[in-house]
Structures are given as C-alpha cells and as structure tokens.
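TODO from last week: model Respiratory-chain NADH dehydrogenase domain 51 kDa subunit.
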Amino acid sequence: MKRGTSTADRSPLVRVATDVAANGDEQVVTAMRDEADSIPVVRTGPTGATGSEPLVVATREGRTAFFADPKPSTAQNIVDTLEDGAIPADGADAVVEHGSETTTIPIPNTGPLSIGQRSVLGRCGWADPLDPKEWPIVSSERTAETVTDIGLLGRGRGDAAADDPVTDVWETARDADGDPVVVANANETRDEQRADEVLLGGAPIAVLDGIAAVAEYVGADDAVVYLNEEDSHLHRHLREAIDAVAGELPIVPQLVAGPDEYRAGAPTAALEAMEGADRIEPRLQPPSPAEYGLYGRPTVIHTPRTFAQVRRAIRDSDAFDADAADPGTRLITVAGDVADPATIELPSDSSLSVVRDAVELTGSFKMACVGGVLGGITRSLDVAPTAQSLAAAGLGTDGVVELLNDDRCVVADVGERARFASTENSGRCVPGREGTKQLTELLRDVYQGSLEADTIRELGRVMARSSNCQIGAHAPRPVTTAIDEFEPEFHAHADGRCPSGTCTEKL
C-alpha cells in the first residue's frame, strides 16, 4: 500500500501487527505481499499481545478476522480469501464485527486485547505507525494548555514527575531561567517493562506529537528522545517516524542513545548520561531537573507513556475525569511466570486483578510483584491501578505486574531483588550503597537461622526516607512487603526448611 493513503479508508485490507525488532516476521509479510494482487498488506506496530504476534488482522466490510502467529502458507490463504470477496473466518482466532469507519483495533471477546480498554493503545496494531495521515498532529494547532486542569500524573520510574502532577513541572520549567528542553526518557533495560516500547513501536508519531505539545507549552525549542543504546531497531524506527512528520511537527526531537544500565534510566541519571558523564548516577535534589536539568537548562522529563496521555488529553479532554485522583489510563505489562507477556491498558476505576485474564500463567498463582523489579509483593491484586491505591497497598507504580507461581520461594525471590539493588545502585549515597548491602546480608542471615524482621523493617524505613536514588529508596519494598504477606515462610527458612522446596542447597 502506498504511504499517504489512510488504512481507515481502505477495505479489504490486511494488517500485520508485530514488534519492530521481529525481523523473522518478515516471512509472513513477504508471503502475503507476494500473494496479493489487489489487497493492501500493511505492517503495523505491536499491539502489546506478544504471544499473538505476528498478528494478522484481515478486514472486509465491517468485519475483522484475527490470526495469531500464522504460518506463511496460512497468511497467503488469508489474502486469497479476501481477494475472492470473503472474510477469512476459517481457522481465525476471532472474528469481530464493527463499524466500517472504525479507527482503532476491534476488540475480540477473549485474549489480551479484550482486557481493560484501548485508548492510547487503540491504534497500535491497527494503523501504519509511520504514516502521518494516520496520526493527525495536534501540537501544531494546540499546546498542552488544555491539560492543565485535568491533573494528569507522570507515569513510570523514568519520569521526573512520576505520580505527581505534570503541569507543576511544566510551570516550573516555564518560569525558570534559561531555555527549556523536553526529554522523553525511554531507556529501559528490564525485559518485563515493555509499555514504552509498545508505544514507540506502534504509535511513535503520537508520542512525538505529545512531546511537541509539551515543548510548545513550556517554550522549548529543543527536545530529545533518550533510548537504550541496545535498541538499535527502535532507534531506526523512530528516525523514520521523525522524518515522516518533520514538516508537520513544531518541534523535531533528536535521538540520543544512553548506556544499557538500569540506573541510567532514572531521570537525573539520564541527564548525566546525555551529558557524557563517565559515572552514571542520580543528581542530588534540589534543584529539580525542571529548574536545572540538561546542561543547566530547565528540563521536562517524561516517559513515552506520559506524553501519549498528554496527546490523548489534548485530543479528547472530555475522556478524562478531572475530579479523579489519577485521571487517564495506566499501561501495565503483565510478565513473570507466564507463557507470553502482554501489555494492557487499564482505566483508573478497574482492578489489577483483571491482568490474570491477559496471560496464561504457568503453574498455580502464588503471589505477584507489582511495580517492577523493586515493586511490592502481594497475594491479592484486588487494588485499583492508580498511583494512590498502589502506594497505599505498598506496591509500585512502574507499570509492571509479575505473576509468580507456586514453584517460587518468596525468600529466594526477594533475595535476588535485594542483590540486584546492591549491584545496580549508583553508590552515591550511604543509604543506597550500604543499606542495600545490609539488606542483602540480613536476608542471607535468614538461611543461617536468624530472622530479624523488625531490623529489616527499620532499615527499610531509613532507606526509603533518606536515599538519594530510587534504587536505594525502593530496594526494601519487595522484602518488607514479602515479610508482611509470607512471614511464616521466612520463619520456616530460619528453621532450616523451604516450604516450596527450592532452597535445599542453601539450607
């Protein structure tokens, strides 16, 4: 299909939804294009449903058939059926009826796509991610002014306004001395955090549009998209997206690659990396990045998730409940002991418990870690996916839910997370550098017959209050929440017994 023709205006049509790095999926795309005489075959970005990709989506006259990970021969048959004038329902995973002018992916009754709602994810897997006609630019006509009364909170650990109102940061940057700059922080090293990658793969122009809108609001002439140096495929994809809309965006970001280190994804550590510092570590605050950021300039740092929410709010502010404590939606990647991870989108009035319907758990559910590698351990997911509810439950807000099965030993699991924190922290502050070591040692002592639960909790309180970096502040959270939920298992280990039977060599 030629660029410049909106896929929303074409029927019949075949879309192939796949991750931008999935080069092996080219076999399916090539097979279909070779077979097609009159049917356009469009490669879209990912949907977030990893286990279904490449996902072939065949549409004709208000009906869409879904085929998860088909063989090239099956894909060719799909094209043949469409060219014969029928919808290829035979062997389809789902067939959905919808309006002929639908602009977002139709929702099947089952599977990851059916969970939650698809707002910022709505066109991921449905629209050509590199076609400007599919993504009307709002930043050239309107700025983020319409977002100021909504109360949108920043999303993700890479956001300098994580769980805080974004407009407070914008106002600070706009009023500070110097020329502002806007940064989209997308440097992620952990496989379980996929939300920003899904957005940048499936809706890069929407994210770029959100960046430009914020830049217009704060008066910035410069913007940066900060990526992991290992994500060369994403770098190329974004370069194509930027080139496609360079003449339409009021601000064209530059791409900067940062180190493949977990600590380099923290907001102020990202600034250090972009400035070329030899040692990547978070900065002492105050001043905040909005006051003194990249090269001393006022800097707004958000994740792609936040910028996508900003654009959505500009396009449809009525979709946001300004009275809600955490307006908008949250992207959640469901990972852990699952057949395939999935990224879904949940409204604030839903429950995290629905994430279990988005994936196939291997084994029986035992617990979940909510909020990334240093999130909180819980038996129950009956909590709203809002910043306030998650924090009140002692859980994290980074947009990851790891479902862990009953083969897991909770003591071993949180021990691994504590060791991760002790090796990945920057070493700049004593609570982060020494506190993570003490935490790891206290967990090792459990295997030697000593459980000092009160000491662990007190250490956790000190680290959370006084650490300069997020790693130091959040490192105790998996341990303390696990003790709250599974204290008998910790006592069993101190008595020389692992209830799950996985720690026999340590006991």
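Done. The longest strand covers residues 329-336.
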